[in-house]
Amino acid sequence: MLSSGSELRLLRLLFCATLILLFQADEAKKDSKSACNTCEQIVDNFNKAFDRTAKQNFGGGNTAWEERKLSKYETSEIRLMEIVEDLCESSSFECNRMVEEHEEHFETWWFKKKTKHPDLHKWFCIDTIKVCCPKGTFGPDCNACVGGSETPCHGNGQCDGDGTRGGNGKCRCDQAYKGDFCLDCIDGYFNEVRNDTYSLCTECHLSCKTCTGATNQECDECKEGWEEDEQEACVDVNECTNDPSLCREGQYCLNTEGSYSCKACDIECAGCSGPGSDQCQACASGYQDVKGTCTGLMYMFMTSCLSVIDFSMNKLLPF
Ligand SMILES: *[C@@H]1O[C@H](CO)[C@@H](O)[C@H](O)[C@H]1NC(C)=O
Q1: Stretch(es) of the chain classified as CATH 2.10.220.10
Q2: Å from CA of 155 to ligand 1 middle
Q3: CATH code of the domain made up of 246-307
Q4: Pocket test for ligand 1, best of 156, 197, 199 (most atoms within 8 A of CB)
Q5: How are beta strands 177-178 and 171-173 bridged, if at all?
Q6: Which atom of ligand 1 is nearest to the CA of 195?
Q7: What is the pLDDT of residue 20?
Q8: Long-range contacts of range 71-77, CB-CB < 8 Å, 24 or more positions apart?
Q9: Best substitution site from 151, 196, 198, 202 to test ligand 1's pocket, by max atoms within 8 Å of Cβ?
Q10: Ligand 1 atom 4, closest CA
Q11: Average pLDDT over residues 300-318
């Protein structure tokens, strides 16, 4: 019989082991994706170095001797060595490990397979070391993505693990699309075109929450801040006339499409119905109503002085 103490220890051990296994499975999936990325980087660098070395040994001359030398170099081991040296950044551990592990494959391809299988990515990453899959397929056996390998996710999303030996083949839909197959539209969009294999989602009118077409008459439901009128079209709600007390003292309410905002009154006003000193409800202290506009006392004083001076000048200097 186990004592309860050792039972507990056993449970804890099992729990930890499960966690570790789960964690490793997750890591392995991620690893399969990143291994493919590493391989693609290597192939990319291979092709670049291949192009670079093509020019490198060409002196510009065209003597028979030089051409013979060049054509020998083209397929030589020396050139392959120069290329392989350039496949990884020295800091990239993953890359260097992959090249080291599979160095003999590069030789095989270079001397034996290159002519028949010119696509190094396909030959090396997909068919030989099996870290990538053809486009539109995913996972250990390169199964087709949701929606088929021709148009994964029906062209409206990203297939998880696409082109790698990892992932689960499920779709992450682009903006505007949803559902397992990325054929449905999210709220605020409608299906402009739709069949079993193709879907185009287009944005609804600004006023619709959901809709069947592009105008404000084709809303299923109005967005907040909009309401149905007699023609069943969604129109802007004027929040400011519906509820004049929306804004604080010293502010006026400004209606906007689908909403409203509160703006500060002019300094001359004590409460106002709009911008400017001619829309005050009352004048602030220090200001006086002059023909419907709240005006500063200093300004009034100065203008009256000027008119007195003007008047006197006219009297004194009658031209
Ligand atoms: C679905 O619609 C697309 C685009 O209009 C079209 O190319 C395709 O042939 C259609 N497929 C079917 C099965 O009707």
Answers
A1: 184-236, 246-307
A2: 13
A3: 2.10.220.10
A4: 197
A5: unpaired
A6: 1
A7: 59
A8: 75/110, 75/111, 77/107, 77/110
A9: 198
A10: 198
A11: 66
Q: How far from 11 is each of 3, 14, 15, 22, CA to CA, in Å?
A: 12, 5, 6, 17
pLDDT in tens, 42-81: 999 999 999 999 876 655 556 676 667 767 888 899 999 9
Tokens of 11: 């449970």
**pLDDT tens digits, 128-162:** 999 999 999 999 999 999 999 999 999 999 999 99
Band of the pLDDT at 9, cuts 50, 70, 90? confident
Over the stretch 164-182, which tens digit does the pLDDT of each residue have? 999 999 999 999 999 999 9
C-alpha 194 – ligand 1 centre gap (Å)? 8
CA of 204 to the centre of ligand 1 (A): 23
pLDDT at 316 over 90: no
User: What is the distance in A from the centroid of ligand 1 to the CA of 293?
Assistant: 66
Give the binding-site residues of ligand 1, using a 6 Å CB cut-off: 193, 195-198
* Distance from Cα 156 to the centre of ligand 1, integer Å: 15
Residue at 216: amino acid letter: N
Instruction: Assign a CATH topology to domain 184-236.
Output: 2.10.220
Task: State the chain's mean pLDDT as an integer.
Answer: 88
Q: Which residues share a beta bridge with 164?
A: 132
Q: Give the per-residue SS3 of 123-134.
A: HHHHHHCCCECC
The three-state secondary structure class of 147 is: coil
Q: What is the pLDDT of residue 72?
A: 83
